Amino acid sequence: xxxxxVESYRVKLTEFTENDLIIYHKWFLESEPQRITCRPxxxxxxxxxxxxxxxxxxxxxxxHFAARRIDDNEFLGRVTYFDLNTRNRSAEIGFLxxxxxxxxxxxxxxxxxxLEYLFNKLNLNKVMAQTAEFNEASIALLKKxxxxxxxxxxxxxxxxxxxxxxxxxxxxxxxxxxxx
Length: 180
Hints:
By secondary structure, the chain is of the alpha+beta class. 33% of the residues lie in helices and 35% in strands. The protein has a single domain (6-179), classed as 3-Layer(aba) Sandwich (Aminopeptidase), CATH 3.40.630. The longest helix has 16 residues, at 106-121.
C-alpha cells in the first residue's frame, strides 16, 4: 500500500472523490440503473446523488473506492462495501466498471483488491454479493473470483414489466485464504 491505495499489477483502489462520482453517475445512467440494482433509486439527479454521497461518506458501514489504472491514474470504476455487520464480521459488495473498461480484467483485479482489504484489513469472515439472474457477466465474475451461490430471492428484481430472481453469493475468509 502506498499513498493510501491498495494495488495490483494494473489496478489500484483509492479514495472515491466527487469528481469520480460525476463520471460514475454518467456510467450508472448509461448502464440502465433498473438493470443493475433492485434497490430503490429515488431521485437520481446529479445534485441529489452528490448530496446523498456526502451524507453517507462519513458512515463506517459503507465505503466507496475508486478503481484506477496504475499507469495513468485513469478512473476505471467503483467498488463498494456496505451493510457492514461487525457482529458477524460480514459485508456486501457492489461494483461498476466503466463501459470502455469492461471485459479487460479490471473488475476482477479491483474486486480482488477489495476482498484483500475486507478480509485482511477489516478481518471479515464473509463477503456477500447479490445480482439478478439475467446479469450473466456479474455471475461469471463472482464465480471466477471464488464466490459461491448461496441462494435465490424469487421474483425480486423488477425489469421491463416482469420480475426476475436475484442470486445471492458469498465467499468466506477461509475460502479466500485457501485460494490466495
